[in-house]
Amino acid sequence: MIQSFNPPVRTLMGPGPSDIAPRVLAAMSRPTIGHLDPAFIQMMDEIKQMLQYAFQTKNELTMPVSAPGSAGMETCFVNLVEPGDKVIVCQNGVFGGRMKENVERCGGVAVMVEDDWGTAVSVDKVQAALEQNPDAKVLAFVHAETSTGAISDAKALCALAREHDCLTIVDAVTSLGGSELRVDEWGIDAIYSGTQKCLSCPPGISPVSFSERAVEAVKARKTSVPSWFLDTNLVMGYWGAGAKRAYHHTAPVNALYALHEGLVMLQDEGLENAWARHDKHHQALRAGLEAMGLKFLVAEGERLPQLNSVFIPEGVDDAALRTTLLNDYSLEIGAGLGAFAGKVWRIGLMGAACTQRNVMFCLMALENTLLAQGISLEAGKAGQAALAVYQ
After folding, report:
1. Residue 148 in contact with residue 309, Cβ under 8 Å?
2. Are strands 190-192 and 167-171 parallel, antiparallel or unpaired?
């Protein structure tokens, strides 16, 4: 007979999901109420307000989509891209490729701007693409590329798009709450994220925000939004302002309790303090990894603090090492994706997992496991290097 499922307790330091804050887990266990209950609607308004703070925006159309980050991505594309629309898509990793797929499934034409994986999106290449395609409607790019750990200059890219009267769609799945992100100041038109990275929440919800320009573009569509569930015209009847809400779908009540609590924690810490915390622990982890002789995939100026990609040393059995970390230390780190499968590890420092304890624990476990595989390194040196940063 099948028994209740009791998952092992892990330390999650991969590309996501990250460790969930105990306060957030506790919030999920609170009594379920109806998704049109006045108390729930009041909480919805608070979630919107706190998401506006996290995104640094006053956009009225700011809400959590009742599905993972991939649905947030699709929400932006299905609402803004119509058949025949030209979209400049930047690809410097896996997730730019998913943007291209969304454009094509909406019947749009994707004009690709490609950069080497592990580098930021080239502002110069984007400028050239905008100049060569004056009829482009949208510029789409990934702010923080989870497949490599590269961060791109969203402020500069959005400024270019504005100069060419182009809307922007931005992937902030790994950056929201962990890296500087200013939607209104930078002029971002449509942005999506996920809850399972720097917001310390479980996967399954996707925060999105649309500027007034983007909302006007949706209203001016010549064709219907191809997805009923993700049509912002419909869902804003539920997530709009005021106490009276129109039924659209049954919201994931307890998952939204979790998001509410995660956003309260972000508000209490302070957004800029959260950005600084991610950077501080990244600096300590970096010092420890480099003390072990590990080299980063991404150059320092383009490196994402919360997702650290390092090359696997020659002679190391990648799968065996990650299995040992999981079995002996209950520690999860990520494998490489695409062209970097078997070549890099992706070590996450996100949200509640971004702590000194986790940095020191990861360095110790990784050092021990590398030594066990016969890699020559000085025991204890990584920890000392990290502690020097903290002190």
Report:
1. yes
2. parallel
Q: Looking at the domain 22-268, which fold is it?
A: Aspartate Aminotransferase; domain 2 (3.40.640)
346 is in an annotated binding site: yes
For 270-390, CATH gives: 3.90.1150.10
Query: What is the 8-class DSSP label of residue 315?
Result: T
Identity of the residue numbered 14? G
Contacts of 128 (CB under 8 A, 6+ apart): none
Q: Which residues contact 22 (CB under 8 A, 6 or more apart)?
A: none
**Phi then psi for 87, rounded to 5 degrees?**
-125, 125
Residue owning tokens 């930047």 = 90
CA 108/CA 80 separation, integer angstroms: 10
Name the band, by pLDDT with cuts 50, 70 and 90, for residue 243.
low
Q: 179-208, pLDDT tens digit by residue?
A: 999 999 999 999 999 999 999 999 999 999
Q: What is the pLDDT of residues 336-346, one digit of tens each?
A: 998 899 999 99
Question: How many Å apart are CA 149 and CA 356, to the nearest integer?
Answer: 20
Distances (CA, A) of 122 to 50, 89, 119, 130, 280: 32, 12, 8, 13, 27
Contact between 92 and 115 (Cβ < 8 Å):
yes
Q: Which contiguous run of DSSP H or E holds residue 185? A: helix 183-186
Please give the single-letter amino acid code of residue 351. G
> What's phi and psi for 187, nearest 5 deg?
75, 35
Q: Dig out the tokens for 218 from the structure.
A: 């949706």
Q: Mean of the pLDDT values across residues 211-235?
A: 97
Residues of the chain with CATH 3.40.640.10: 22-268
pTM higher than the cut 0.85? yes
**CB 139 within 8 Å of CB 167:** yes
Element (H, E) at 45: helix 38-55
